[in-house]
Amino acid sequence: MLIKSADVRKAKNNKPFIAFTFQDKSGQIDGKFWDAKEEDINRFQAGTVVFVSGKRELYQNNPQLRISKMRLAQAGEPSSPELYMERAPIRTEDMIEEINQTLFEITSAPINRVVRYLLKKFHKEFFDFPAAKRHHHAFPGGLSFHTISILRLAKTVVKNYPGVSQSLLYGGVILHDIGKTIELTGSLSTEYTLKGNLIGHIVLIDEEITKACEALKISEDNEDIILLKHVVLAHHGKMEYGSPVLPHLLEAEIIHYLDNLDASINMIDTALQRTTEGSFSERIFGLENRSFYKPNVTPPAQTE
Amino acid sequence: MLIKSADVRKAKNNKPFIAFTFQDKSGQIDGKFWDAKEEDINRFQAGTVVFVSGKRELYQNNPQLRISKMRLAQAGEPSSPELYMERAPIRTEDMIEEINQTLFEITSAPINRVVRYLLKKFHKEFFDFPAAKRHHHAFPGGLSFHTISILRLAKTVVKNYPGVSQSLLYGGVILHDIGKTIELTGSLSTEYTLKGNLIGHIVLIDEEITKACEALKISEDNEDIILLKHVVLAHHGKMEYGSPVLPHLLEAEIIHYLDNLDASINMIDTALQRTTEGSFSERIFGLENRSFYKPNVTPPAQTE
Amino acid sequence: MLIKSADVRKAKNNKPFIAFTFQDKSGQIDGKFWDAKEEDINRFQAGTVVFVSGKRELYQNNPQLRISKMRLAQAGEPSSPELYMERAPIRTEDMIEEINQTLFEITSAPINRVVRYLLKKFHKEFFDFPAAKRHHHAFPGGLSFHTISILRLAKTVVKNYPGVSQSLLYGGVILHDIGKTIELTGSLSTEYTLKGNLIGHIVLIDEEITKACEALKISEDNEDIILLKHVVLAHHGKMEYGSPVLPHLLEAEIIHYLDNLDASINMIDTALQRTTEGSFSERIFGLENRSFYKPNVTPPAQTE
Amino acid sequence: MLIKSADVRKAKNNKPFIAFTFQDKSGQIDGKFWDAKEEDINRFQAGTVVFVSGKRELYQNNPQLRISKMRLAQAGEPSSPELYMERAPIRTEDMIEEINQTLFEITSAPINRVVRYLLKKFHKEFFDFPAAKRHHHAFPGGLSFHTISILRLAKTVVKNYPGVSQSLLYGGVILHDIGKTIELTGSLSTEYTLKGNLIGHIVLIDEEITKACEALKISEDNEDIILLKHVVLAHHGKMEYGSPVLPHLLEAEIIHYLDNLDASINMIDTALQRTTEGSFSERIFGLENRSFYKPNVTPPAQTE
Amino acid sequence: MLIKSADVRKAKNNKPFIAFTFQDKSGQIDGKFWDAKEEDINRFQAGTVVFVSGKRELYQNNPQLRISKMRLAQAGEPSSPELYMERAPIRTEDMIEEINQTLFEITSAPINRVVRYLLKKFHKEFFDFPAAKRHHHAFPGGLSFHTISILRLAKTVVKNYPGVSQSLLYGGVILHDIGKTIELTGSLSTEYTLKGNLIGHIVLIDEEITKACEALKISEDNEDIILLKHVVLAHHGKMEYGSPVLPHLLEAEIIHYLDNLDASINMIDTALQRTTEGSFSERIFGLENRSFYKPNVTPPAQTE
Amino acid sequence: MLIKSADVRKAKNNKPFIAFTFQDKSGQIDGKFWDAKEEDINRFQAGTVVFVSGKRELYQNNPQLRISKMRLAQAGEPSSPELYMERAPIRTEDMIEEINQTLFEITSAPINRVVRYLLKKFHKEFFDFPAAKRHHHAFPGGLSFHTISILRLAKTVVKNYPGVSQSLLYGGVILHDIGKTIELTGSLSTEYTLKGNLIGHIVLIDEEITKACEALKISEDNEDIILLKHVVLAHHGKMEYGSPVLPHLLEAEIIHYLDNLDASINMIDTALQRTTEGSFSERIFGLENRSFYKPNVTPPAQTE
């Protein structure tokens, strides 16, 4: 397993212990390492691959690992962190391909050029960063995976509702969270940058569109650019969630809903994976602390 | 045009006038008929087809008809209200067919049986009622059209997110607003019934599921039935919007978002139809009084 | 004393301890049992009667029992849990009698028949269940005691305000919380059922009225039945507290106030019983975390 | 009828008209007097008794008088305003007697003395003022009638809940709104005074208790006095409704509920008096703009 | 007087009238021109200087001009709109000088350069635009006057509180509202631009800082620039007021308070100018609809 | 160092420990004393001067003292608590002088006399009490220091905005928080008094003004007195913050803003003193749990 975070604390008996979060592809689990010695603290740091044996227990309804033994990966054993990290369920190449295909459907020239410019500028980060520090899609590649999930819903919307501009909708979806590549520090031990804290990803992407227009010599008064900026600025849907303007375009309203829908499904899905059938999940902070019920699997077409 | 509503009021000069809302397939428009005589009031009532000439004006930014002449349909002229009413853009037969196809994908027997039972019981109303008195899909057939629009989005969701139960999702979508057939009086001059005012469509459909189970001899403790009821009860998403419980099922959360998304698109779409390119619509009451911008049409792939 | 709950946790020194809540007729008190062995955990489970000696201490302003010795009841000693439980201060027979007397004042036939039918159906639970899992009247018989306390206030209201319908008011009071018998699991170790979590006691009782009407062949369009349902559905007073409709009947508004008043008095009363004169109680979660002052007893007619 | 208020306005045709509210013992009704001449304006002022003939009409669902003829009371006709005013349904002497009886149950000497002192000081106003400018009990004597209605409920509470201090509860009820005699100008054409607008009746009565203690040489540190002040200051129950402190005494919480209950019943009752059976009342501003349903009278013990 | 706005409406008798707002240096007043003919509508348009005689009246507590005669300025009479417009009480030259002096106290080089660059870019608009469309400082030069008023308060703050950065505080104050020069259309008949509606002045100024840094070759990672952007972005203090980030810098918090304080004083001051001593002003929309009392002038050192 | 508070608690291993807050002039720090014996608990009580050696550590981002040795002050060592307490950065004599000078600018006789009377009555407490139990200016002399800081800002306001009454503004500032001398117990181990909890400092000072008028024979109907009371009652600005009336005077609005501004600066300043450059402070409870960034010191006039 990979040590995702390692937090040294003091027990009430005054001895240090380490509060771990372990990660493998099946998910995460917490575990406490009691009576930690100086050497343990140095050895077992975040980002290290370790082999742990112990028992899975419930602590205040949350699963926890009761550690009995723990050691570093030895020579010959797999020790690369990447092997243990949760990843997007689509391969990066496929995500790149899917995004590229979508670009052909963005027929507004200024929007198309700005989107291509920024995808190129942030290419590496876009396919590597998580979509959030903790709440949803918090794994490497989460940002692009979240974006693609919304794009797929957006395409159904375009098909079903005639008046929608696909340039604006797809352009807005692709850019809506790309400011997170500046807001956050990266895909491991993700933290907020100073710009992230003081400016925020919503305004950061607006700045990037502004600079892209300067570089591409697109007028800042071009209506399509103003609309694109609006769609990105308004995508949190409410001012109290950090959008400096409320949605005043059909496409802004749609992106707001699809963004929330995809994030919610991911949060619920993640919580339900750790829940037993027939019981309720932990409370999900990002969903007003609601817990969700995981139904008992019903064989299809049962009869009473 | 069809007189959708006719409200007799008193002018400040103490003479009666009639405040009309006219309807034809292109939309609605208001108009005032000044110095109305007794016979005008009797002749020009809601539900009547009339021929009006006059000028379209703006009154406090809302279009209004300045009536210069107005008369009843004469013999030989079309006078059936149905001809002038906005209708769902899909034919009723096609909607019936689409719903029926969907029923095959509801593989949970209790959900399938309850949904069929209630669709049969409310068949006529379901394909005739509006989805709301005023806010969205406020036209004959609006209820089934709204339902089908959500179903289409729901099918994309099922395709993209593996964990979702299609029985619960499709069953919930089909039933979520069917209580409106009891809450409202019908497709013309729609008002709230006493049950609509005092019980509300959310609880009314829950009662119908309860009675359907009694009739079909399905146990009220069947988990699928409890889940179906929950999905319907929680579909307003927040208690302050009238759901007695918050969503605690993945499918309940999804229906809540898709319902809001479809209703919002319809409200914005309706408002933009009455708006000139390059300007803002009227404020939309159901969307926190926001007005929406109707962009200038940009020829595709323009260059700056 | 009775062990009301026994929660095995891990101390920071990694040894298990048991967090008890003890109950006798004078109230409840918490206590921790340190360094619990396997046999202690098995022996001292919730629902067991034990003999404990120790010292009452304050821990963060809450009284707590510092356990020095603890053993099971021996042969010859009282060991029935019922002996130690807090109970309603009125005997069950007297509550039954008082409810029955009230039925004669419900002169609307449909309301009278539905109330009798449901009282009979839930007779055992109604006089045994608590009124809530934790907040107020959380003891066996609490539900009927809470109901009777409100009924007594309701009778003063009927006497003082001429326009009030006593059928609707008394019928509504008796049924308003009876759905808790389905929402909760019982009077000991009370938890929420799946129906309680996903449907809620407000809709559950509405379903019961619906089924009662079917059984009694009372039309669901009978106005008195619609009013009775409304009064029950609206009794939480605000949508954000779980009522799917706001009160639109005088009697609904009155029940809402009396319900809150009785629950508040019970919560404050319970908190003040554990508070010293001249100081403030713990914060009461159900009353916006307010604490209440317990005045010094003033001898009557004192002079300064 | 009595002219309760007469508001001269300008019609859209630029001629003055008078917007009247008429009052007789059966209630109030509005009416507009068109094309008012100088002499009409002078003659028909608020506080005058007039004889009006006309027709009762509905204007936007509110009843209104369409005035056809209107004249002053002539010699020999009753012309005293008192004859036409709505009054409390209890005679002033009986209210005085009921308050006086209650004083004997206030056994705390400092509370008893302060209450007697202030009742004496504001005797005339207390039995003459309305309880509010407009919302509830807005008629002469409304203040004392509102007080007595609450007192009656309070006595049931004392009987049913053993821990309640009747000195504090009854003292608090009697004083809770007596500051309105300073906040408002009187029982006719009631307006807010400068003190009412800038200090408010809640603090004004606190000041009066302070001065009463000085006059009666009761220490301001006497606990009963502090409690009495608290009960009065906290009676609006929430800070956003103007109480500078939240209720922290059982009796403060009770008065808050009973005050709201009595005011709500009076508002609903007043609205229902103007409503036809089987329909909904106007929206009541003081009750979050809800309208209330007036049921069809059901003959007792009907059978379906 | 200057016609500030002229709104043609239809009276209830169906004839057009003009709703004027007149402006001279002493303030504004509304007035209605009844039975307006085609030529009146053409002649009396916004931005025209007119001579009006009539009577000042109160209409629903707001002063209004009852127009008896009205004509255009004749040859030889003053007819330039500028003569009649309210203006900032400081001369433009003095404001320029005061701003320039302040620049010397901005010792951070990047902040100083950006502020100078933007002041130069928007020089004309900054000293000509109002500070808002309607709420506060809604007159030519209002933007710079509002800025200078805050700067004066800011200098006291710097003097009294040692830890405050004057570079950040003064730079932030000068730029905080300069985006209004893009958000609004100008100083006469002020409206929102498309960018104003869809992006808003807070993000617009952030974009300008971004472009200024590109032009001046200042790194966008320079901490002072990040801080300056934050201070501007956060100056509305709360997200629901349109700031995409909450204040996380001492200087951001201070600017937020001083901005609100100056705007409030200006709104109250403007309202009190139209209010008689000893009475309450109109309700001020920008201050939660509160009205403000204008005290009677008390001769200094009076004695009671 | 001074022991500011000493809280005996039980560790999870069941042994008592002491949770200290130490104070010297440089600020405060927490520290835990493990395995405390009876004599340690008696010796090391709040208000005692001790000599401590140990190591400064971070515990969940908050600095904490890891105590290695601790003893009482010995003979010859400084042991007076006053020596170690944080104090206002202005000497008491200077504060007295500054307040006295201000009194000459209060030219309204009734306001001047009331302010002098109350300053005299509460002289000792006013210059000794903190301005709050914990949030801001929580040190001896904090109340008068907070008052003087606001006064200085108020004087700039008077200079910049002509319409402001300095009598009302300065009088209001001086009295606005003086009720805290009754609300709180003193400058050490500050707690709320019963009056503080049940009446609150806002109403307490209103009572004091009332009694001062009685003593000085100033009529309670004097307009200046009503205005002064209003300014004090409304200074929390919003009802939900405990003001029983909203500001309806220009001066009330100004005091509200200046009070908040000064308190906020003090809270941020205090938090930043404990924060390293280039990082964020702890969350500040009184400022909606925001944390504030402490910038890296930039040498003036740097160049990139």
Automatic annotation (TrEMBL), chains A, B, C, D, E, F:
GO MF entries: exonuclease activity; nucleic acid binding
The keyword Metal-binding belongs to this UniProt entry's keyword annotation: no
Keyword Transcription: no
Entry keyword set: Exonuclease, Hydrolase, Nuclease
SUPFAM superfamilies: HD-domain/PDEase-like
Matches recorded under InterPro entries: HD/PDEase_dom, HD_domain, NA-bd_OB-fold, NA-bd_OB_tRNA, YhaM_exoribonuc/phosphodiest
CDD domains, per the entry: HDc, YhaM_OBF_like
Residue ranges of domain HD in the record: 146-263
Domain OB: 8-72
GO biological process: rRNA 3'-end processing
Domain of life: Bacteria
PANTHER family xref list: 3'-5' EXORIBONUCLEASE YHAM
Name listed for the protein in its UniProt record: HD domain-containing protein
Species for this entry: Jeotgalibaca ciconiae
Source lineage: Bacteria, Bacillati, Bacillota, Bacilli, Lactobacillales
